[in-house]
Description:
The protein is of the alpha+beta class. The protein has helices at residues 30-34, 56-69, 78-91, 161-172, 215-227, 238-241, 275-287; strands at residues 11-13, 16-18, 38-39, 42-47, 50-53, 97-105, 117-124, 135-143, 177-181, 187-190, 194-199, 202-205, 231-233, 246-251, 255-262, 265-266. Strands 8, 9, 10, 11, 12, 13, 14, 15 and 16 form a 9-stranded mixed beta sheet that branches. Strands 1, 2, 3, 4, 5, 6 and 7 form a 7-stranded antiparallel beta sheet that branches. Helix 2 (56-69) crosses helix 3 (78-91). The protein is globular, with a radius of gyration of 19 Å. The two termini are 32 Å apart.
Amino acid sequence: MNAYSNNQTVIYHNGEFLKPKAATSSLYSQTLHYGNGVFEGIRTYKTTEGTKIFKAEAHYERLKYGAKVMGIPFNYTVEELVAITYDLLRRNQLEDAYIRPLITTGDSMGLYTSKESILTIQCWAWPKLMGDNLLRVKTSSFERPNPKSCFVEAKVTGHYINSILSTNEAKDAGYDEALLLDMYGNVAECSGANIFMEKDGQLFTPKKGSIMAGITRSTILEICQEEGIPVEEKHFKLEELKQADSAFFTGTAAEVVGLKSLDDYEFPLKWSESLGYKLMKLYQKEVLGQRKNKLSKVL
């Protein structure tokens, strides 16, 4: 059928488990016309203790937050959402998978939020979004949205036009990814992941405000604290990033991936000797439940 489903695929849609072709959506949905919908990206892993959705509660809390700030009615509890998702994984016989919950709105051609919503949850086997190779990154001509123009920490469908524009620009120019700055010229994030840089044995990552403060980002910060790796959240400019020893992106779909270069600057520290590489390995152990100090539990 496509890269995300086949004839055996089951999705959860509007209270039912269905085949993808049996699910319908309205041509008058406010999500379709204006981008007023909310989604999440979640991963599940096969561990020695069974199938584990990594930080399921945190993801579904953020989904509910997005619905709240966008005025979308949504009455599922976090516990219900987690239970439905495990049921969906079992029906699709998936253990290592990507999970995409999506809240769409009802019919409305006006700009006041529709009073109807539909929950759809899909899952499929999906390798790391950005692959395992080091990335060649281009500074984008597009900026992250002004935080006074929207709720930048909500995963609203319409916000990702910004990501599509920056990704198209970078890939059309022969790069792997785009790096966006904020309205003040500070480094923000890439099209769909957060960034960390290493300088003189310390890590730095942009402060909250203009970024999507990712759940993988917060996990890396927690691992750093547990492992005694110095890390600071601060604003920094592109020029400072282009003097860094190493850099990497973090995100649920991307996990942890290193940068080879930014524009014409090549990061000098060998990736295998960087803190990013160490954290990539620690993160892999974390999601598989293999770290001594686990940040999450199997549900």
